[in-house]
């Protein structure tokens, strides 16, 4: 879950990876709201890691150990003010920030099999939940969801990444 995305970022500049968790569909049908909250645990953990990395980056900048980069990228959210170990720290913080932002946003796409589709149950009236659960269990819908998410994510991610950087570095603009 961690090694493959890190290696792929270092090689290609873009993370690739996957993860799965034990899941009992019978339990999920019996307790749809609990299953929806469980589905949100992963994306919320990703968001918490983004925020933790942002706090460390902001502290590093305030202490003069890290700097706001001139240009940004997945592995370049921050840079070290000096050479040496600080370069590695800046790289790791950048990757933690970026990868977890990607995972948070991707998993919140509301198409099966992504976690955002399970969270929709929290917004539905209880009478519609069984119909929705039956609808999203269709295997082809999962493949279609991955295809749709793949197509729209590239368009959606860049503006959201830039927005997150504007929150991280208020007043700094990137093209």
SSE blueprint:
Layout: H1 3-12, H2 25-30, H3 32-62, E1 66-67, E2 79-80, H4 85-107, H5 115-119, H6 129-136, H7 139-168
Antiparallel strand pairs: 1-2
Helix pairs in contact: 3-4, 4-7
How would you describe this structure to a colleague?
It is a single chain. This protein is an all-alpha fold. It has one domain. 65% of the residues lie in helices and 2% in strands. Strands 1-2 form a two-stranded antiparallel sheet. 23% of the residues are buried.
List keywords for this structure.
single chain; two-stranded antiparallel ribbon; 65% helix; mainly alpha
Question: Can you summarize this structure?
Answer:
The chain has helices spanning 3-12, 25-30, 32-62, 85-107, 115-119, 129-136, 139-168, and strands at 66-67, 79-80.
Q: Biggest sheet: strands, sense, closure? A: 2 strands, antiparallel
Overall 3D form = elongated
The number of domains: 1
Question: Termini distance?
Answer: 32 Å
Q: Fraction of residues in helices?
A: 55-70%
Name the helix and strand elements from N-terminus to C-terminus, one letter apiece. HHHEEHHHH
Mean pLDDT: 89
Poorly predicted spans:
none
- Rg, nearest Å: 19 Å
């Amino acid at each position: 879950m961690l090694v493959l995305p890190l290696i792929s970022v270092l090689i290609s500049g873009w993370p690739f990876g996957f993860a799965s968790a034990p899941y009992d569909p019978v339990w999920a049908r019996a307790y749809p709201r609990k299953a929806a909250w469980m589905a949100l645990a992963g994306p919320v953990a990703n968001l918490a890691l983004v925020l933790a990395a942002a706090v460390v980056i902001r502290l590093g900048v305030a202490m003069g150990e890290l700097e706001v980069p001139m240009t940004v990228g997945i592995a370049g959210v921050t840079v070290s003010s000096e050479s040496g170990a600080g370069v590695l720290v800046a790289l790791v913080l950048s990757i933690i920030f970026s990868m977890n932002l990607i995972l948070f946003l991707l998993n919140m796409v509301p198409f099966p099999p992504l976690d955002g589709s399970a969270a929709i149950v929290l917004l539905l009236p209880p009478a519609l939940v069984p119909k929705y659960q039956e609808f999203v269990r269709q295997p082809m819908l999962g493949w279609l969801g991955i295809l749709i998410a793949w197509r729209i994510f590239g368009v959606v991610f860049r503006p959201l990444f830039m927005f997150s950087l504007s929150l991280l570095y208020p007043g700094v603009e990137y093209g």
